[in-house]
Design a protein that fits this description.
Length: 190
């Protein structure tokens, strides 16, 4: 009887030790893994009643995030948000709204250079943010390349009560791609 109890105890002990070691390796391994840069889920889109409110809140947040580091986070978040908006609108062939969102995304990304420069001038360690901007830039460029390959080079936009105009979508993508590249390079040099 004693040996069966001891044998059962040893089995449960070894099982618990094995599970503990496995969990330890899993937890330790996850702590060293660096996650890839992810774009956010799409927010309110044009046509939604809350879209105007969302845009107004985005403008008001600029005054809330007043430090150099918080401005980097603000502009990066804004750039990501508007890029996802542009991507969604391009996929639904809403080219006029999409080019506007792409321009807002690119302007927000370009503002990151001034934010990093301000942080460096204030003797703050901005290396983490420079790396994040570099990762974000490569993700933004990937999205732009995929959108460029899936949309027409030009599009004739004809509104209901006005004259039509050409949208040069390929040039818009090239402009945004080049601006992101130059911003990332300038930020890395700071």
């Amino acid at each position: 009887m004693y040996s069966k109890e001891r044998e059962e105890y040893m089995r449960t002990f070894l099982l618990n030790v094995t599970i503990s070691i496995f969990l330890l390796f899993v937890i330790c391994h996850l702590s060293f893994v660096r996650a890839a840069y992810m774009l956010p889920y799409p927010s309110y889109m044009p046509g939604n009643r809350l879209y105007a409110v969302s845009r107004m809140i985005d403008r008001m947040k600029k005054y809330w995030y007043f430090g150099a580091i918080s401005q980097v986070k603000y502009h990066l978040e804004l750039s990501d948000k508007y890029l996802v908006e542009a991507k969604t609108l391009f996929e639904y062939k809403q080219y006029m709204l999409a080019t506007d969102a792409l321009l807002r995304s690119t302007e927000a990304f370009q503002a990151l250079e001034d934010d990093i420069r301000r942080g460096v001038d204030q003797n703050k360690d901005m290396t983490v943010f420079v790396d994040e901007i570099e990762d974000a830039g490569s993700v933004h460029q990937e999205v732009l390349l995929s959108l460029k390959s899936s949309t027409p080079e030009t599009f004739l936009w004809t509104p209901e009560k006005a004259s039509s105009s050409d949208l040069f979508l390929s040039k818009e993508f090239d402009y945004a791609y080049d601006l992101i590249s130059s911003t990332v390079e300038k930020v890395k040099q700071l």
